[in-house]
Amino acid sequence: MSAYRDFLEPNGQYAATFGDKGSLAIRPTKKLAIVTCMDARVNVFAQLGIREGEAHIIRNAGGIAKDALRSIIISQRLLGTREIAVFHHTGCGMRTFSSPELRSLIKESDPANSALSAVDDIDFLEFTDLEQSVRDDVQFLRENSLVLPETKVSGWVYEVETGTIRQIV
Ligand SMILES: [Zn+2]
C-alpha cells in the first residue's frame, strides 16, 4: 500500500467545493512569503488563517532562510512579495543531529559506495537554540543583498505542543 492511494477521494471532495478559486491570480494578495519547516505537524493554512492565493509557503527541513533563498528571490522579483515571516518550531528534528553525524550515517550505510561522499558537500543547517535560530535567520534575510531592502521580515516560533505562535523578532 502506498500513501498516495488516499489522495483521490479527498481531492474529489475538495474539487467539488472549489468555487471560484480557479480564477485566483498567481501573485500572492498579501504580498507575503512564509518560510517554515517541512514538519508534518505544521499546517500553515489552518494555523495562520492563510487561504489559497494569499501567500507563498516556502518549506524545507527546519524552515531555514538560507535554504529558502532561491524561492524567496523568485517570490520577490517575479511575483511581488514584500514581506517574509520566518517560522521555526518546538520539537524540530533539526536540533537532534549534527551535519558530521548525518554524513557519517549516510556513508556508513553503504561503505562500498564512494558516490555517497557527495554528502560531504552538503551543510544540513541544523541548529541548537530555537529562538536564536529564528533571530539568525531574520538577520540573514535583512542583511542579504539579494533580498529587497524594503522587505518587512519577522521571526516566529510555532509550538507543536499547544498550536500557538509567538513572535521572536
Ligand atoms: Zn522542524
Question: What this model shows, in words?
Answer:
This protein is α/β, with parallel strands linked by helices and 169 residues long. The chain has helices at 8-16, 44-48, 65-77, 99-108, 130-143; strands at residues 32-37, 55-60, 83-89, 152-158, 165-167. It has a single domain, classed as Beta-carbonic Anhydrase, Chain A (3-Layer(aba) Sandwich). A five-stranded mixed sheet has the order 2-1-3-4-5, covered by helices on one side. Strand 1 (32-37), helix 2 (44-48) and strand 2 (55-60) form a beta-alpha-beta unit. The termini are far apart. The model has no long low-confidence stretch (mean pLDDT 98). The structure holds zinc ion. This is Carbonic anhydrase. It holds the Pfam family Pro_CA. It catalyses: hydrogencarbonate + H(+) = CO2 + H2O. Reversible hydration of carbon dioxide.
Q: If you compute it from the alpha carbons, what radius of gyration comes out, rounded to the nearest whole angstrom? A: 18 Å
* Backbone structural class: alpha/beta
Task: Kindly report the average pLDDT value.
Answer: 98
Helix percentage: 25-40%
H/E series: HEHEHEHHEE
CATH topology: Beta-carbonic Anhydrase, Chain A
Poorly predicted runs are none
Write down the overall geometry. Answer: globular
Spatial sequence of strands, sheet with the most strands:
2-1-3-4-5
Going by CATH, what is the homologous superfamily? Carbonic anhydrase
Bound molecules: zinc ion
Q: State the separation between the terminal residues, measured CA to CA.
A: 44 Å
Write down how many β-strands occur, each being a DSSP E stretch of 2 or more residues: 5
Strand content: 15-25%
In CATH, the architecture is 3-Layer(aba) Sandwich
| Number of DSSP helical runs | 5
Give the oligomeric state. Answer: single chain
By CATH reckoning, the class would read Alpha Beta
